[in-house]
Amino acid sequence: SGSGSRADPQTARGRCRVMFLHNREELQNLRKEAEKRLHAAKLRVLVCAGTGCIASGSKEIYDKMVELSEGNGQVSVEFEGEVPHPEIRKSGCHGFCEMGPLMRIEPLGILYIKVKVEDCEEIYEKTICQGQPIERLLYHKDGQVYQSEESIPFYAGQMRLVLKNCGHIDAENIEEYIAVGGYSALEKVLFDIDKDTALDMMEESGLRGRGGGGFPAGRKWKQVARQKETQRYVVCNGDEGDPGAFMDRSIMEGDPHKMLEGMLIGSYLTGAQNAYIYVRAEYPLAVERLQKAITQAEEHGLIGDNVLGTDFCIHFHINRGAGAFVCGEGSALTASIEGKRGMPRVKPPRTVEQGLFAKPTVLNNVETYANVPMIITNGVEWYRSIGTEGSPGTKAFALTGNVNNTGLIEVPMGTTLRTIIYDIGGGLKGGGKFKGVQIGGPSGGCLVEENLDVPLDFDQVKKYNAIIGSGGLVVMDESTCMVDVAKFFMGFTQRESCGKCGPCRIGTKRMLELLEKITDGKGEMEDLDKLEETAKFIQARSLCGLGKSAPLPVLSTLKNFRDEYIEHIVEGKCRAHVCEAMKVYEIDPEKCKGCTKCARNCPVGAIAGEKKQPHKIDPSKCIKCGSCMDNCPFGAIGVK
């Protein structure tokens, strides 16, 4: 079902004839039929079609598997018995991005990693037709071979609830979502429980906004529901702007109906008639999948007028953001939807009172809405049994940086960094020594080795000048310069400042200038005091959350790595050899063969020496371009 999949024979095959659902009974019948059809499939091949795997060639892999399954491929198979006709499906992100493209084969429970188009015929011949796993395509670690996804340490240490369907169902087929229980939570609030009870459930669950602020979602919903103004809106913040973060994107691409169902429930409980999804324009696949999902839900009578025969009427709209990081802030986001420049405004009034079009508005992010159906279906006690007392449930994190297993993970709130980095992430690349992790994006802070056993939840991380944020985790080893890291994130927030308030517009610029001065080898000790004073001023006086949290990377690195700042200033030294102005290139006379290649490639003539004799670099002439080191065939040039 769904207009977005009509041209795809694999998606179209076996589609249920029922389209528009007029009542609860028709939804239940469709669920039974869809579930029966899903379980009746003898073989399902789920090719990861998330953005990461598509970039690595998974679309071509999908097309090739469809070709082979339709009998158009050139495969010669000799075996006895009937070959089950496989269903080839596009799934959402499996999460194990380091190993993509990924392919899951059910019910054999096989997960193939780093699949290539040229592997498809062998997969079809040996696995599809003969049921034999191909060992070279399975995950290997420490001499052990892992056939199933669930047994791989990366997955075994997780609790995938929000991401449960990603990688396991067709991301573009509403009936597969319905088959695994989709829209049963909406059905429950429409027919089985009254609005006040459902709102109480949301508040008692303790669900906190996963966009970074951690405000209790149920309390926000109740505040909107009690407003005198009857025209209300529900808005989803899909403007995921943190560098390296892709949690919301993966949900929108891999399980869009779960988010839509959460928004539908929120709209019904708060009396909203229109729902808006604000998505980054840089997420074209997410926009495409969301539009398909909305169209399918409209065709099935789950979005529109008189949903399932009730008096509930709701209409969805998608707005594309223009790439401004500040539009992740609520009032800037609603201004952008209205066609105005995306800039924060003074509060009060708050969004729950005067949000979109100056009407009461529920505003949560993608992951928050995706939690809602589970809470309604499984109950408050179940949800509160996961995570911590103050931060129930799970949290999705984008694990990136100098860690072996990068990707998208989901763990209970309160899980420690040690578990995430070493058990799930597989430790640091090349056996490096852990130095720190940037958490919460450019407006977050840095946690260090002594924080490895701190429970990650909204309240605990604040004690260390950091925030959970939307869930980005950038792991760093000793090859990282923490002053350079602070400069990078300050540069990002300075560029993304909307400029409306002086503390953020001017303050972030001044802090960036001080950091550049230090990394250029011109810093003074008094600059550290200036950084701290300016940071506290910005935190106290900025208009919105971007400005208030912008100094966190600087404050946390000053606290935990002050010795590196002092080395840059006093010794003119960058221990990680990252800051260009502090690099000193030298030639090892024991390794130098006098080939003159370095001298010939030096643009300023800073290298001298006789042919076949060790050469030397004149530091007063060297512009630190690194050309000599790049061109030395003997590895004789290094940085001290």
Essential attributes:
640 residues; alpha/beta; 5-stranded mixed sheet; 25 helices; 19 strands; 38% helix; 14% strand
Strands, helices and their partners?
Layout: H1 9-12, H2 24-40, E1 44-48, H3 51-55, H4 58-69, E2 87-91, E3 103-106, E4 110-112, H5 120-128, E5 139-141, E6 144-146, H6 153-156, H7 174-179, H8 184-191, H9 195-205, H10 217-225, E7 233-238, H11 247-254, H12 256-270, E8 274-280, H13 284-299, E9 315-321, H14 330-337, E10 361-365, H15 366-378, H16 380-384, E11 394-401, E12 407-412, H17 417-424, E13 434-439, E14 445-448, E15 472-477, H18 482-496, H19 502-519, H20 526-541, H21 545-549, H22 552-560, H23 562-571, E16 585-587, H24 597-601, E17 607-608, E18 616-617, H25 627-631, E19 637-639
Parallel strand pairs: 1-2, 7-8, 7-10, 8-9, 11-15
Antiparallel strand pairs: 1-3, 3-4, 5-6, 11-12, 13-14, 13-15, 16-19, 17-18
Helix pairs in contact: 8-12, 8-15, 9-10, 11-12, 11-13, 12-15, 18-19, 18-22, 19-20, 20-22
Note down, in words, how this protein is organized:
It is a single chain. This protein has 25 helices and 19 strands. It has 640 residues and is α/β, with parallel strands linked by helices. It has a five-stranded mixed sheet with strand order 12-11-15-13-14, with helices on both faces. Helix 13 links the parallel strand 8 and strand 9 (315-321). Residues 1-7, 11-16 and 74-83 have low confidence and may be disordered.
